[in-house]
Amino acid sequence: MKLPAFLYALRWLIADTVRLAIASGLFAVMLTVTLLTILFCASIGFRGDVPLRSGNEKLEFLPNLDRFGPMRVTSMVGMPPIASAALVYETVMNDPQRLENRYGVVTVRGRMTIGFGLLEVPLSRDRAHTVQTIQLVLAGAIADGAGLLLALVWTAGFLPSFLEASAASVLLAKPMPRWGLLLGKYVGVMVFVAGQATLFVAGTWLAMGIRTGVWDAHYLLTIPLLLIHFGIFFSFSMVVAVCTRSTIASVIGSILFWLLCWGLNFGRHAFLVTPELSQAGGLTGWIVEISYWVTPKPADLGLILFDVLRAEDYFGRIVDIQKLEAAGGVMPTMSVLSSLAATMGILILAAVQFRKTDY
After folding, report:
1. HSE (CB half, 13 Å, CA atoms) of 202?
2. How far is CA 16 from CA 170, 186, 226, in A?
3. What percent of the chain clears pLDDT 70, i.e. is strictly above it?
């Protein structure tokens, strides 16, 4: 098959995927969710707040004040010995300017407004940290968590309808190999999801940047990580679809496969950081390592996203990353490459099965 013909067919398959998404209402649903989220980000504002750091200056907690409320300082130089945390807390609450003028202590103040001022929330951190926390929730919980699973569910029906005997018989009559049709459909779905992910991430980033003045480019790195994560498990959805031609089986199969891979990934890390388990070694250790390296690694992708967004400033880790690094268990580049290799193997399996199927 000549390259121009393949590119033409690929363009047609991408356009057909977008057409199917529009016809099924999926495009409208995802666009509505994205626009509402962008509107929410655009409604966020701040008033009365002060920056607690400049440049890369690290913030520190005032000692013994955690139980009285959040307060941050930029420097401990010049601070007197704190005999009574309650006394300092009272000073901060009643006259924070006095503490700032006398000792150079900058305390958290101001409020965050939501809904264009309809709701006000007192700040527990400065503006930059608050915006980064919101972005972390949007990227981790909404996009990479619920969004990933919903995207797998919503797109699971694309391939079974594509593989119905009435539709496949027409497509297979065209001058294009079966693997090309399957690859074209995979690329079509990836292009559709890439458009939605880019609109969601870039739109929320622009909305919050314009409203708050906080421009954290690390948030944009969420886009390629989301696409890698989705692409891995959509490839398995394709295998199930080719074998069963069932939307329900594709949905259940891809989610179960995600849970299995996540369990193997997390279990391997827990194995390495738990002395009682790691000291066992032997055959068990080999099985754990082999299972880890031959399967996709959703937990690792989550850890990479965690690091990209500097989430350690806001949330604890479910795995002790320092122990994992000491055990040689953290290799982000190899983790991504091996996950992509596993995806390639899954796509080849789907192509082989599609080639054997009679229509």
Report:
1. 8
2. 14, 12, 23
3. 69
Task: Give how many domains the chain has, as a whole number.
Answer: 2
Write out the two tokens for 171.
């497509």
> Is pLDDT at 344 greater than 90 in this prediction?
yes
Tally of CA atoms within 13 A in the half-sphere of 252 that contains its CB? 6
Alpha carbons 97 and 104: distance in angstroms, whole number: 9
The answer on 205 and 333 residing in a single domain is yes
Q: Which residue has the higher pLDDT, 9 or 213?
A: 213
In this structure, the answer to whether residues 129 and 95 fall within a common structural domain is no
Burial of 45 (0-12, 13-18, 19+ CB in 10 A): middle
Taking the CA atoms of 101, 102, 104 and 108 in sequence, report the sign of the dihedral they define: negative
Which stretch of DSSP H or E encloses residue 121?
Answer: strand 119-122
Task: Give residue 175's pLDDT band: very low, low, confident or very high (50, 70, 90).
Answer: low
What range does the domain containing 91 cover?
50-109
In a domain? residue 120: no
First to last CA, the chain: 22
**Spatial separation of the C-alpha atoms in residues 87 and 74, rounded to whole Å:** 20
Q: 10 and 70 share a domain?
A: no
